[in-house]
Amino acid sequence: MYYLGTDIGGSAVKLIAADEKGNILTRRKYTADGSGERLENETRIMLSEAGMTAPPAHIFLTGAGSDISENRFKDIPRTCFEEFGCFGRGAVKLSGIDKAVIVSIGTGTAFVIADKNNYTHIGGSGVGGGTLSGLAELTVNTSDSAALNRLISEGNPAKVDLTMGDICKGTLGGLAADVTAANFGSRHISHDPADIAAGISNMIFQTAGVMAAFACKGTDITNAVFVGAMSEIPEGKAVLEAVGQLHSLTFTVPEGGAYAGALGAVLWGLERENIL
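The structure corresponding to this sequence follows.
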């Protein structure tokens, strides 16, 4: 017996099959196109490749685009959950940290406080994966994720950003010379597409990290967990860890974070069914 979890976001659709303990058995991700037919086909492909011939016991859904699943997967029970509680639960499961600021960097960025089994949405930002693809389309003439990831890995954000070392000698307020003073504020800004792409990515991750740090201020929370599709960009993990260290906090990017919402939908469903 297994359960299907789907997270249908604005940019990508994430699919998983999980067992009764919430362990992911197989997973798949594709670019969102608003097609219910494709959702069904991609799900069948995922299950077929994993050798899973029986239908799922239940389908648990989340994400702003969940309505495209209507009239699909007939005769299989379906339950939809709001996404903030889903990616919160998924992030806790993936990281093993049950008290943290959970940050989902998807098309935009959302922030949830996780405290044991309580999940409270505290706000969000329009700066996220949609920002990356949009600005990249305008500046380096591509929004393709594979091409962008390649450019980001080849680029150097220090060639487009202004750092503290560029504007003062020594330290200012304890800030090291390599701390960013202004994203894309370099006095000798590079026009290399790779540096531009790396700068955009750096700006998005720094923004998410600083907002997470501010969310921790005035609380006893010292951890932040980052999930969502953009959490799979390797360079982002290093940026987030640096921001965490700057604020004396622990920032964690668990493996499989892109699937936190789909996993959380299954976990929430198993809770409701008193299975987990």
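Residues 193-216 form the longest helix (24 residues).
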